[in-house]
Amino acid sequence: MIFEHISSGGCQSYLLGCEKTRAAIVIDPNLHQIDHYPFLAARHGLHIRYVLDTHTHADHFSAAREMGQKLNAGVVAHRLSPAPYAEFFLDDGEKLKVGDITLQTLHTPGHTRDSMCLVAEGHLFTGDTLLIGGAGRIDLPTGDPDALYDSLFHRVLTLDPALLIHPAHDYKGQGHSTLGDEIATNPRLQNRDRESFVAMMKGLDLELPAHLTEALRVNIHGGKPLFQLLAEASDRISFVSAEELSQEWGDAVLLDVRERDAFEAGHIPGAVNLPRGQLELQADRRLPDAARRIVVCCGTGEMAILAAATLRELGFVHTAALRDGLKAWQEKDFPLSRS
User: How many Å apart are CA 250 and CA 240, to the nearest integer?
Assistant: First the structure.
């Protein structure tokens, strides 16, 4: 079996390939690495046939939907997964064949109700059920400490201790472990009393993931995260620096898309205000000459990128965005007007 471990910060994903058939699967693909997986597969002469999420991720963005679309790969999840874009659903005890590789499914709820582990050729992919030196948190949506206790002590820990452990997260950069090592040293597994385990997991008091709401929205409903929307919009527009704007912007319209109170508190001299929320409704009235050059600005630059891309879609083809927004303008000590 061809095996590649891909790390993206603390998030871990895995490429498995069949040496005979060249079929491959990516487990827990991360959107930030979406271009890396096909590169690795091509380097080994593999074709990605499946992408699989071991559970609904709440702290990063899954690449499963986009990889499925771009590569014509089957999107695999547990039967209880809420993801509408999944095509193949696995349940406890079921098998997935990737060429000559067989992945055996264990339903291991607790971290989430759709969590599953996968066993394949001496490897155990544990998602967030079992981590190296830890176990998946139970304080996120559908988490259940009692279910996690059963999944760990009645399912996972009964497997072959020689299995190599590959979790979906590894914040300490340990790479991999064995099930036997975890049984012997993992502090979450040392007390096998249910009540003590449940109390321990409930008392961890962990900080919530930074992008919890956005990640759940994207991973459950199949939308796009803000960083992706900004990247796609940036590819469709041009940019103007604060220095360039201060030197020459001719007859261009400088359009500030912040709310009125923010605009009145300080704006670039000569700018006109059209809040982003009114852009589509007011553009034709406020910007009657679609051929005129427009430079869009906001506080930090992000809203201006989205607004400039929208204006281009509306036919205002000579629209650019002020890079880094009013923040960059102020850092250069350029003047502001207030009204």
Answer: 13
